[in-house]
Amino acid sequence: MKRCKQAQSKTKASVEVVDIEDISFSEKEISKIRASLLEWYDENRRDLPWRRISNGNNDDVGSEEGERIAYAVWVSEEVNEMWAGLGYYRRARFLLEGAKMIAEGGGEFPKTASSLQMVKGIGNYTAGAIASIAFKEAVPVVDGNVVRVITRLKAISANPKVSTTVKNIWELARQLVDPSRPGDFNQAVMELGATVCSVTAPSCTSCPISPQCQALSLSTTHESVQVTDYPMKVAKAQKRHDFSAVSVVEIIEEDKSQSASRYLLVKRPDEGLLAGLWEFPSVLLEGEADLVSRRRAIDSFLKESFDLDLENSCKVVLREEVGVYVHVFSHIRLKMYVELLILRLTGGENFLPRKQTGKTMTWKSVDHEALSTLGLTSGVRKKCFIVKKASSFCWKAQVKKDRHYLVCFMLPCDFATKMYVPRRKYSLVRLLVD
């Protein structure tokens, strides 16, 4: 199907493009691109872990060595505690599941792109990277950098997010792969996109394949065309706005000081956002909610999940709003209202009741030291920081006894009176002193 509409508005009057399915590289182009790109890569490639293991020019890769390289490439692409805070948590889980699958299958690592894609969590990109770099299979690798390089080489104006465009870019990448050095060639294209053919400021004068670049050629003959017009800019989808109430629950055991307290963590479901990760108790709200509604939601969650009744089964030492934290995911903007809730329970967390329901809540409690070293998401760590920062403004009780009075300055929690006095205020509390 021929396409006669123009690529973008600013090239409408001068540049006509054809359907991406009609685009291909000539043998002459392929030969020049391979030679120029590999020569450039040999001189300019960055020092990355898996590149230290593999000598790109060595064709005699044994089975054991190939598998070692394969694991290095895989881990570099997919590496729960060490991963915490880096995002893309599903990849870490898939890495473990994939390793288990290989171990259960006899421990032999798949050596082709097609067999690699049968492993949980390995898609086209990772399969191509492992197969070409570790086992020298002539298969392509396509990431954002490769898309940018190829769309500029061929001045492709089609939407890069559309499945037909993606399919054809993979085919163009396949045409270019050097059969003698597939891993190095794939890395060379990615390296070029990451360092030279950048998104907003490509260094075309330093590009080894600029003579073959149609986008550059068009930019020199048409005032309305720029290299950065490619690939086509696609409007990002609007992020969904979600709201949640988060309660940092601190548990103090009976007859123990607050320094021996523990924090309650719950495990998220195995599917969905941040699957299987630990976090403070939280409730997703229907929208913006006032303080009373947020606390009601948290109270209901604690009662339903742990049969924990804040009015009857425990003593609330302190309950204070400590801040608001906004975390932006790829498709969600989550606004979290964070509170600190200090509870005194008889027997501490060992006697924390848990309601027996159809869905069992997985939870644990950790002390302050463990909380600071535990593998937690960046969002949970941020909430810890908010609580710590808020607590630093809550001074320790400054007590001055004057006959029958106790003066409490900016108390964070109870001190003899068992009453919370708001920050930046002081209260004169009368005691019955013998």
UniProtKB/TrEMBL annotation:
Residues 53-195 form the HhH-GPD domain. Binds 1 [4Fe-4S] cluster. The keyword Oxidoreductase does not apply. It catalyses: Hydrolyzes free adenine bases from 7,8-dihydro-8-oxoguanine:adenine mismatched double-stranded DNA, leaving an apurinic site. Involved in oxidative DNA damage repair. Initiates repair of A*oxoG to C*G by removing the inappropriately paired adenine base from the DNA backbone. Possesses both adenine and 2-OH-A DNA glycosylase activities. Adenine glycosylase active on G-A mispairs. It is found in: Nucleus. Its cofactor is [4Fe-4S] cluster. Gene3D superfamilies: Helix-hairpin-Helix base-excision DNA repair enzymes (C-terminal) (1.10.1670.10), Nucleoside Triphosphate Pyrophosphohydrolase (3.90.79.10). One of its GO terms (biological process) is mismatch repair. Pfam families: HhH-GPD (PF00730), NUDIX_4 (PF14815). This is Adenine DNA glycosylase. InterPro entries: DNA_glycosylase, HhH-GPD_domain, HhH_base_excis_C, MIG/MutY, MutY_C, NUDIX_hydrolase-like_dom_sf. GO terms for cellular component: nucleus. The keyword 4Fe-4S applies. Its main location: nucleus. Keywords: 4Fe-4S, DNA damage, DNA repair, Glycosidase, Hydrolase, Iron, Iron-sulfur, Metal-binding, Nucleus.
